[in-house]
Write a structure and sequence with these properties.
CATH architecture of the largest domain: Alpha-Beta Barrel
Strand content: 15-25%
Largest sheet: 9 strands, mixed
CATH superfamily of the largest domain: Metal-dependent hydrolases
Structural class: alpha/beta
Bound molecules: zinc ion
Low-confidence stretches: none
Number of helices: 15
CATH class of the largest domain: Alpha Beta
Helix content: 25-40%
CATH topology of the largest domain: TIM Barrel
Length: 479
């Protein structure tokens, strides 16, 4: 039993059990005993083993990043931001993805980098959606994060031979062997002795998995009491493919097949039947998602780079959908992702009041928790997990502080994150990771990217090298 006390914090974002919402407290104590919060608010009268001053600090719940691909995304930094295929509705999923992917043994460095970015931006829980790679479980456990490993598998992979026709390479076994491997990762996570690992069942995407693979996966998730996440509504091409195969939208297909429910999260849920790019004739999808209690993991940054946005966050909330937020791509800067979610919603709605800062904060905390079927994370309340973050109110980028959460989301972001505890363990201390050396990880990641870039001509269907696929911002002049 080790009690840690943050004494007299200037601000605390506490959970109000009666009203089921976050509230501000000022001049309040927060105490936790090992991995559990024991007091939020008032003055702690017990004896603490460790006491920290809460002066010039805000204490808030750790954020929940509901959708990430750590084994690849950091290696794409400064390469893929401006890549998108104009003949496949601007998506870079189909011919840009595999060109820069790190070798299997290199992926762990990308993952570690992403884990560091998450902790430094106040994330304590995340969903780790990767095709299994060497040392994954150990690296996730060593990061200090609360990790929901979501091993990906699929019946088919995307291919394009000419850059404008999307094809699917279907596996002979429908992806069943890969599903078995994923179950092995799920078992390893659920049985891990850190107590911080859990799992999500995650067949890759609605267009790359057969209905039978998705159905059996959902049945397996339900048998084990695990949450389920599936990419759906991610791309124009996916919408066109599903309507071609089945005659209905992705969500209407999932509803018909009884594959929606409160344990299901749709990764992205962006290209739904109402989206303005589609001009589809129905307006049923948002209502179906809400009626089934299904969640949406909204990841605005990758789409914003393509010039695409969800339409729109406020409308989904108004319909009653449980919204969560994920970073999906690099950077894994959850606080900036929250800002982007707010801005993109307001632009799409052409209305600044379409979403509030509280809505965004809820999505990044209790929204994610609900999607993961947990009520002990994403909130500061007695009995909840000791997953919490302190924000430096005296950091210049936070000042002046009229409303700390606005200063944090609209300006300071990760610059103001000072301490992060996950399960009562301090993973960030005074702005530095305790679980890894970010400089060393970044150095390895640079080497990983260099090795991947060398392979581009072997992987590209036109045998181009990296500088041709992804030209630099400026032409390089020779002196
Ligand atoms: Zn994704």
């Amino acid at each position: 039993m080790t009690i840690t006390l943050i004494r007299n914090a200037d601000w605390v974002i506490a959970w109000d059990e009666d009203e089921d919402c976050h509230v501000y407290l000022q001049g309040a104590d927060v105490a936790f005993d090992d991995d559990r919060i024991i007091q939020v608010g008032g003055q702690f009268e017990g004896t603490a083993d460790f006491e920290l001053s809460g002066r010039s600090r805000m204490v808030m719940p750790g954020l929940i990043n509901m959708h990430t691909h750590p084994s690849t995304m950091p290696a794409f930094k400064s390469v893929r931001e401006e890549l998108g295929n104009p003949q496949l509705y601007l998506s870079a999923l189909y011919d840009g993805w595999n060109l820069f992917t790190p070798a299997p043994e290199d992926k762990v460095w990308a993952a570690r980098y992403a884990y560091g970015e998450m902790l430094l931006s106040g994330v304590t829980t995340y969903v780790d959606m990767c095709f299994p790679f060497p040392n994954w479980v150990d690296a996730a456990a060593a990061s200090g994060l609360r990790a929901f490993l979501a091993p990906l598998y699929q019946s088919a992979s995307w291919r394009t031979d000419n850059g404008h026709e999307l094809k699917y390479d279907w596996k002979d076994d429908d992806g069943r062997a890969d599903m078995e491997e994923a179950v092995g990762v799920i078992d390893a996570a659920m049985g891990h002795n850190s107590g911080r690992l859990a799992a999500v069942v995650a067949p890759m995407a609605i267009d790359t998995c057969s209905l039978s693979l998705i159905g059996d996966s959902l049945a397996m998730a339900r048998e084990r009491g695990l949450p389920f996440q599936l990419h759906a509504g991610e791309a124009m091409m996916e919408f066109l493919e599903i309507t071609r195969r089945h005659g209905v939208s992705q969500v209407q297909l999932l509803a018909k097949e009884r594959m929606l429910g409160p344990d299901v999260t749709l990764g992205h849920g962006l290209f739904l039947d109402h989206h303005s790019w589609l001009h589809w004739s129905t307006r049923a999808d948002i209502g179906l998602i809400a009626d089934h209690g299904t969640s949406v993991a909204h990841c605005p940054t990758p789409f914003s780079r393509y010039g695409i946005t969800l339409e729109h966050f406020g409308k989904y909330l108004e319909a009653g959908i449980n919204m969560a937020i994920g970073t999906d791509t690099h950077p894994h800067n959850m606080l900036e992702e929250m800002r982007t979610a707010a801005i993109m919603c307001r632009v799409a709605a052409q209305n600044m009041h379409a979403v509030s800062t509280a809505d965004i904060f809820n999505a990044a905390t209790v929204g994610g928790a609900k999607a993961l079927m947990r009520n002990d994370i994403g909130r500061l309340a007695p009995g909840a997990k000791a997953d919490l973050v302190t924000i430096a109110l005296d950091e210049a980028s936070m000042m002046p502080v009229y409303d700390p959460i606005r200063s944090l989301i609209y300006t300071a972001a990760d610059r103001a994150v000072r301490d992060v505890w996950v399960d009562g363990e301090r993973a960030v201390e005074n702005g530095r990771l305790t679980t890894m050396d970010m400089g060393e990880v970044a150095h390895h990641l640079s080497e990983v990217q260099a090795r991947a870039l060398e392979k581009v001509p072997q992987r590209d269907r036109l045998k181009r090298h990296a500088l041709q696929v992804a030209p630099l911002t400026f032409r390089t002049r020779r002196h």
